[in-house]
Amino acid sequence: MTTPALLINGTFQPAADGATIPTLAPGTGATLAALPRGRAADVDAAVRAAERALEGPWGRSSAAERGRLLGRMADLISRDHDQLARIEAEDTGKPLAQAKADMVAVRRYFEYYAGAADKVHGSTIPYLDGYFAYTVREPHGVTAHIIPWNYPAQMFARTIGAGLAMGNACVLKPAEDACLSTLALAALAMEAGVPPGALNVVTGLGEEAGAALVAHPGVHHISFTGSPEVGGLIQRAAAANNVGCTMELGGKSPQIVFADADLDAALPILVAAIIQNAGQTCSAGARLLVERSIYGTLVEALAERFAALTLGTWDQDRAVGPLISAVQKARVQGFIDHAVADGIPVLARATLPADLPAGGFFVPPTLFGPVPAGHRLGCEEVFGPVLSVIPFTDEADAIRLANSTAYGLVAGLWTRDGARQHRLPKRLKCGQVFVNCYGAGGGIELPFGGVKRSGYGREKGFEALHTLSSLKTVLVRHD
Ligand code: NAP
Ligand code: MG
After folding, report:
1. Does the residue 206 lie in any domain?
2. Measured by CB atoms within 10 angstroms of the end CB, which terminus of the chain is less buried, N or C?
């Protein structure tokens, strides 16, 4: 692997003061690479480069040209698919098969936004006689993008794909815990012909590079994906400059299983929705609401599957990888220990295989139930492979429980009742509802984001192009 470097004005470079921070391999705890520790001076250079790009040819580029650039990105991602997947797997610890699936989604984001770039139409507005009124979508200008470590490549693709499609000049601050794939993708963007300054990447610590970026007066919009706590800090910084934000925060998403559901179809998806990426997914199906009459049957089948889950390093390519860091491991283990101490029954727990490296950040998938809905485990985001099962009595109870946390990101609904399939999505307070499926196919085309503490604004799909642009109204008097 080449030495990780900041991307500023089309040039890969060390931090201005030469400082670095180590990034670890989660499966072993060993140091994987030294990242440049970008700080305020680097962020300022990146924002200035972005401003210059907007004053140059990038600021005058046609939507069709930008679409072609993104299409070349998609092709380069296909060319380097295996290498990118390996970088992502080593850096995040996720099983290689999952990193490969991530890269299929990454390619698809660029393909989607390549095709969408020149389809963002304005409209004409009937107005007074003698006037012509129309709207046009324009880039915000310099956009800041702050992403987490759980799906670095997919996060890069969804926010930078849409940002560049609309002609913004982007400055990305990836998470220090995993950002090597974002640097590899940035290199492909340069190879594809993205002009200097249109995309800049500053690695470093959140409280240094991230804080400097969101407070920079040259930034016109902030897209953030991460925790509600940091989201709050960023919104305060944005308020000082009166800058708009998109906030993709966490979740405690319910999967609601009614007695009439096709349980054979649901079971593998209920498990996958919480163990994918070792539960470190904002839209993880972390609360399983089960109609009381099938509680025993479903829990028995789930427990069997949980106990049989295998853990391993990225190259062992088993079902579940390690958590990202020692900090996350301690946090998730804390939730488990606290729940056990409070007497919440453990229905099943996977066994840690003897061949795991001693320094890896592994936590065995654990199934708890019944979990009192008001218990920490039942309403706070664990961000690990821990599933809380909660029984409900009827539809009204299911809706009440589903909406009972501070979050509102995604919900899953399992029922064969056609009327209920349409009735419930209206009553669920969240940004996405999946009926008899969950997280189907990566959903690049599907607008995504939350309500309540899960945030606001939408990414993914066509909607992201609206999020990453502003609407100008023009009125021409012609008589
Ligand atoms: P996090 O601590 O909020 O970090 C997210 C990003 O913000 C990282 O790049 C981080 O940089 C940066 N950051 C930290 N402090 C900052 C500051 N003061 N100013 C500016 N940037 C700052 O979250 P995380 O631990 O990476 O991820 C876990 C959380 O994110 C969970 O709550 C999860 O649900 C949520 N999440 C949400 C989504 C979604 O789409 N809704 C997706 C993934 C994760 P450093 O890490 O380098 O410090
Ligand atoms: Mg790492």
Report:
1. yes
2. C
